[in-house]
Amino acid sequence: MFHRLGHFVVRRAWWVIAAWVVAMIAIVAGAPTITAQTDEASFLPKHYESIQASALQEKAFPANFTPSAMVLFERNDGAAMNDADKAAMAKIVQGLSDKKIADVEKVIPVSEQTTSKDGKYALAPIAIDKAKQQSEDFGEAAKHLREEGKSLTSGTDLKFQLGGAAAQALDQKESSGSADALIAMSTVVLVALIVGIIFRSVLAGLLPILISLVVAMPTANGVIAYATKAFGLESTPVLSAILIVVVLGVGTDYFLFLAFRYRERLRAGDDRKEAVANAVGRVGEAIASAAGAVTVAFAVLILSSLGMFKALGPALAIAVIVTALASLTLAPAVLAVIPARGVFWPGKKWMNEPGNARFTALGRMVEKRPALVALASGGVLVALSAGALGYNGTFDLAGSSMPKDKESMVVQDKLMNGFSAGAADPSHVYLTSTAGTKLDPAAFEGFAAKLGGVHGVSPVAAKPQLSEDGTTADFTVLLNNEPSSNAAIDSLTELREVAHSQAPTGTEAKVGGLTAVYKDINLAMNHDYKLVFPVAGLLILLILGLQLRSVVAPWYLMVSVGLGFTATLGSATLLFQKLGSESGLMFMLPILIYLFVVAIGTDYNILIIARLREEARAGRNPREAAREALRHGGPTVAAAGFILAASFATFMLAGNVFMLEFGFAMAFGIALAAFVMALFFTPALTALIGRAAWWPGHGADDQHQSGPAPVAGSHGVPEPAGRH
After folding, report:
1. How far apart are the first and last CA of the chain?
2. Are strands 427-433 and 472-477 parallel, antiparallel or unpaired?
């Protein structure tokens, strides 16, 4: 199949290139505009209690709101505020209201309830249009509030500081803007530079970028937009950043798979066009299988409970399919129309067969001592995996993705010191009559006392806010710990249990608020771990079985992939939690490791196992096949793994904790996948298991009865078994 595809592309190279350009323009020009869904309801399904509580609050207390921003007042000298300061605060708040800032719905005056007990801090909550929560207008509203507020405060003894979600969005955008540009530029430069050095060529370094980012990327974006609209899929604002990494990552990998084999065929004596066709024929199945595994890994995220990952999954799957198609058609078409000397210019020794001394030595070591290599490499993975047992997830995304000296972070710290740590975002217990009748106020005091007795909860007022019809009561609950902390989530868990069990007869209780959302995200992710990972594993297992025609090899390949996942998580845990000062890793890191390390890292295992099977079918015994697979396939895996790991490492330049964790985990995980699993563990196990690895498919004993025919060289003579 892939030999026929290779010859078709070579014969119709210019037509293939033209078809891609025309298709890209048509798809991009007609693609619909998609708006990302970013509210809580799109992140969590409606059956989760925090979402139900939010809906209940909007219905029973429509005038209530969760502050989008908060003004924090304090004296410049740090003393308690006096009557003159209170009058100044009232004037400033009124001035902000009079400015009629776009999307700012109301500014609530300072009250006794929003003043700290020591009188040093006071809060003025602000409501901003919820529909603008994840748009640029949200941060712009915070920007104008800051500017106007500081102007109004000038000449007083007060300090005006803005915190809350809108201020965090503004600060995050400002702090990440230059870092994002640096990461994007560094990634592109790294790919061009490293690929160029590998092939000693300027053009070879640019080709994967041109094919991936100039053609595949816009095409994939357009197809994603069509699919999102046609099938009612969700969209997420984080897609664009992740999409660049995925498309450039897999695109560079697949280009390297093809380019190394293309150069190998040129050295074997093929002319340019025959070399391209034979390269596609030999490596096409590996690229298609690798793309299939990655696509499946992404696509099953549609089973996730979390809206963000449910939106990411299908979109990334589409991107991988488009990139793989470009790698199997557009890339060989481009190689077919450019003279080989041009592709590898200005290098002069590209036709010389390299000694590959390092990989030859590695192949011989695996050939002679497969058991020792398997035990050592497997032992490294197991040892690193042990660190995953100490993994602890945290939810303070804003705090870990911004420098601590940003104004919104300063406000958050002062809120924790001046008020209850949970004052910035209180939890709410909504007590509702199940019969639709008015609630009995006599039961409120006992219920409030039970809620206040929960560990980590401040005393709860016995007089809650009642809805107009008297059927719902809102008990405001202040947690003693910061809302996104694990301690607060533990308190919330107990609070829910008490609220549910102690609700008066004829009523039911629902607990809402930011901490409740984090608790439900935690529950949803536990659900996903039990569903998404096993389904993805089974489907990838099936793809590997079909590619290798074996029921044995896919199993130890999946064990290798699983160990890669746990070893990556364990390494990050050891570095940041045990050796570093972090209390935990970001809650989404395991899913991100799955997305990038497991899905994309599987490519390297597939490439090396495909070469192992090819060498076995050429007549070599299992140990000889491992030696030759590493000699010829090792440089490709090492180059692809190094480039992708280096690209991910650029995220560590962003200057915040989350990107530091993300960049390290992705880079280290890819390095493990390429340099431990694919170059040591997988070939050593295959050599150790022997011909049984290919059972019941075709191995060395029946290479003449099945499999692709030997590929002819430039003179139509079958290539000798030793030349690959």
Report:
1. 20
2. antiparallel
Q: Tell me the pTM.
A: 0.79
- Pick the closest to residue 513 from 42, 51, 39 (CA basis): 51
From CA 409, how far away is CA 119, in angstroms rounded?
21
Please report the DSSP string for 591-648 in residue order: HHHIIIIIHHHHHHHHHHHHHHHHHHHTT--HHHHHHHHHHHHHHHHHHHHHHHHHHH
Kind and range of the H or E run holding 424: none
Neighbours of 37 (CB within 10 A): 17
Place of tokens 């499946």: 296
Sequence-distant (≥ 6) Cβ neighbours of residue 333 within 8 angstroms: 9, 10, 12, 13, 14, 16, 17, 20
Residues 6+ apart with CB under 8 A from 277: 3, 6, 7, 9, 10, 332
d(CA 320, CA 317): 5
Residue type at 592 in one-letter notation: L
Residue type at position 251: G
In terms of Cα–Cα distance, which of 284, 225, 261 is closest to 9?
284
Distance between CA atoms of residues 21 and 698, nearest Å: 40
Give the residue carrying structure tokens 């533990």.
Answer: 490
pLDDT at res. 389: 92
Q: Is the separation of the CB atoms in 80 and 119 below 8 Å? A: yes
Mean pLDDT, rounded, for 208-227: 92
456 φ/ψ sector (left φ>0, alpha ψ -120 to 50, else beta): left
Do 225 and 32 contact (CB within 8 A), yes or no?
yes
Alpha-carbon distances, residue 459 vs 125, 478, 497, 609 (angstroms) = 22, 8, 17, 62
Sign of CA dihedral 57, 58, 60, 64: positive
Give the residues across from 718 on adjacent strands: 712
Q: Which residue, 309, 178, 326, 313, is CA-closest to 247?
A: 326
Q: What is the pLDDT of residues 315-362, one digit of tens each?
A: 999 999 999 999 999 999 999 999 988 888 877 766 666 656 788 899
**Whole-number Å distance between alpha carbons of 190 and 196:** 10
Joined together, the tokens standing for residue 68 give 């989008």
DSSP-assigned states of every residue in 306-327: SHHHHHHHHHHHHHHHHHHHII
- Round to whole Å and give the CA distance between 23 and 94: 57
Q: Which amino acid is at 417?
A: N
What's the CA gap between 95 and 379, in Å, rounded? 66
d(CA 177, CA 93) in angstroms, rounded, equals 31
Distance, CA of 329 to CA of 9 (rounded, Å): 6
pLDDT tens profile 164-205: 888 887 877 766 555 666 777 787 888 888 888 888 888 888
């202040």: which residue's tokens? 478
> What mean pLDDT, rounded, does the chain reach?
85
Torsions phi, psi for 429 (to 5 deg): -110, 120
Tell which residue, 699, 600, 675, 640, has the closest CA to residue 256.
Answer: 640
Q: Would you call 162 helix, strand, or coil by DSSP?
A: strand
C-beta pairs of 352-357 under 8 Å, 24+ apart in sequence: 352/267, 353/267, 356/631, 356/632, 356/634, 356/635
pLDDT tens digits, residue range 119-154? 899 999 999 887 777 677 888 899 999 999 999 999
Which residues of 186-234 form beta strands (DSSP E)?
Answer: none
How many Å apart are CA 298 and CA 315, to the nearest integer?
A: 8
- Which position has the token pair 């450039």? 248
